[in-house]
Structures are given as C-alpha cells and as structure tokens.
Amino acid sequence: MKKIAVFTSGGDAPGMNACLRAVVRTGLHKGLEVVGIKRGYEGMIERDFIAMNAHSVSGIIQQGGTILQSARSDRFRTEAGRKQAYENLKAEGIEGIVAIGGDGTFTGASVFMNEYPDIAIVGCPGTIDNDLYGTDFTIGYDTAINTAMNAIDNIKDTANAHNRLFFIEVMGRDAGFIALRSGIASGAEAVLVPETKTNIDALVASLKENFYNKKTSSIVIVAEGDDAGGAFEIAEAVKKQMDYYDIRVSILGHVQRGGRPTAMERVRASRMGMEAVKALLDGKKGVMIGTLHRDISYTPFEKAIKHHQEMNPMLLEIVEVLG
Ligand code: F6P
Q1: For 227-246, what is each residue's pLDDT tens digit?
Q2: Could you say which of 120, 142, 205, 285 has the lowest number of CB atoms within 10 Å?
C-alpha cells in the first residue's frame, strides 16, 4: 500500500483532529502518501482532496471540530454517488482509507466496501454519543461529558439560589451515555435515558420526597432521545403533579459537540489513529478500531453499528442510590 486517505464524517466530535493528526503522521512515518478528503463522503464524490504533510496537522491536537470538515451525505446513499466516489479514489491512486465517524459513516463504508472491495476501509469511532459497540469509549465522548458536567454545575448554582427544579436535556438521539455519566458526575437527582423505560409517576414521587425533605434544588438530566419525550415534555408532565415547584428547562444542545478535547480524548484518539494505519498495512479492512479494557480491538462495521453498547447497570445503580 502506497497511498491512503482519511476523512471525518457525520456529527463532528472533539478529538477528531487528534485522530486525524495521528493518521497523517503515522502514515508519513510508514512511508505512505496521505490524502485528506474534505467534508466526508460529499468530498469523496466531488473529489475534494488535499495532500497532507506533517505540517498540515500541526497545532490541531488541541482543537475541537475537524479541520477536514464533516457532512452527512445523501448522495453517498445512492449507487451513482458511490460509483463517482470510487472513480475519484481510483483516479487518485488511493488504496486504503481511514474513516473517522459514527454509525452513519460505518454504514456507508460497509456498503461501499461490498461494492468496491479493492479499496480497504478501516474506521475510528468518532462520535460524542459513545453508542458504538466494540469500544469502551468513542472519540468525543469524554470531552462531551465534561462539557455537559460543567454546564450542569453552573445551572446547579442558580437552581440552589432559587430553590428550583431543573430539567436539563443533553445530546443522545438514540443513546443515554452522555446523560448517564454527566448526570452521575454532577450529582443529578435523576437521569432519564432511552435505554430504560421512564416512569413519570415514580420520578414525581422521588422529586416530591426531595422537595418535602427541603432539598434546595433538584436536577433531572434528560437524554434527548428519552422514550417519555424531550426535557420540555417531561417538565410539563411533572408540572401537572407538582405545580408548586418552580420548574425550569435548559437544553444544552451543540455546546456539547465543540470545545478543546480533554487529555484522555487526545491520547485515545492518537492511539486509535495510529492503530488504524497499522491495521491497513496489516491487511485489515471493514473493521472499527476501538479500545476495550485498555487493549486495541477490531470490530466489523456491521457489528459496531448494529449492536448497541449496553448501559452499565452499576452506573444506573449509582444514580438510583446516590441521586
Ligand atoms: O453527534 C451525535 C449527535 O450529537 C446526536 O446526539 C444528536 O442528536 C445529533 O448529533 C445532532 O446532530 P446534527 O445537529 O448535526 O443533526
């Protein structure tokens, strides 16, 4: 293998740049030519390629977002779009690709590799949601939970000052991992996640207990994909049974996607990026690089996207007992 490409795709995540840097520098170290594809699959279809050298990735390990930019490509879902992408990659002489992204990215990579098996693709898990199977942590998750925790801490101050109940919605369209760990870390009274059925009556009962025990405030973390609805809907339902409590809602939103990656993030992303290039050179393809119990793991794309990582019941218990 002489020439590889790298791209970032789907929702950006802090640490993607660190991963990108590792791919480029490892590739160069191994004597490969490295090409950056801008805006994920869109750039692949439009042949938006740039040659990467060691300098192209200088000073990016500390930056959130992605210098290659990202996109969600509808055209890549079509056969014609993928054919165009393949022709562009062949014309450029690319033999291997590192895809940094989440489930949509690996779904696309998997379809593409079935159609065009002569281009090897391996993936690095880049998503703040931590919802991929085969890795303990995805790139972006650690930073996102720290960002969420800091925001929740700020809200807690004002909640205490006014004796209020806050519903704080964090990201996680299909998964509650951000909610779970940011909730534990900020001492939230309850955490509502899509993985477990939300019982509004039970929630109200425990909030009432807090209220009558004169807790100065209560914080409920809601994952955006919770089965009982978003933070506004849940707050409405609770208000009906506790109209005497001063209730506020806060949606943290995209603030969780940006920001400087944490130290753990940068180290993990660097390791995954380096291992991804080594995997390509070892002849691996169609796998996501992850870390499980400190070791590097290789999970087929289909498995990484279809089998959701399970919620750790011990973490759910912490919320229950300590919240
Ligand atoms: O990156 C994953 C995620 O943050 C989800 O939790 C969220 O629902 C989604 O992205 C929103 O992304 P966008 O605004 O790019 O559609």
Answers
A1: 999 999 999 999 999 999 99
A2: 205
Structure tokens at 77: 């879902």
Q: Are residues 48 and 115 in the same domain?
A: yes
Q: Are residues 145 and 135 in the same domain?
A: no
For the stretch 62-83, pLDDT in tens is: 999 999 999 999 999 999 999 9
Q: How far is the CA of 243 from the centre of ligand 1 (A)?
A: 33
pTM exceeds 0.90 for this model: yes
Check whether 308 has a pLDDT greater than 80: no
Cα of 173 from ligand 1 centre, angstroms? 7
Do 127 and 8 sit in the same domain of this protein? yes
Task: Tell me which residues are annotated as active site.
Answer: 129
Q: Supply the range of the domain harboring residue 197.
A: 141-258
CA distances from 132 to 61, 174, 177, 208, 213 (A): 23, 11, 11, 36, 40
In ligand 1, the atom with minimum distance to the C-alpha of 12 is 1
CATH code (residue 71): 3.40.50.450
- Residues flanking ligand 1, CB < 6 Å: 11, 127-129, 171-173, 224, 257
Report which ligand 1 atom has the smallest distance to the Cα of 175.
Answer: 6
Residue 20, domain member (yes or no): yes
* Position in ligand 1 atom list of the atom nearest CA 257: 4
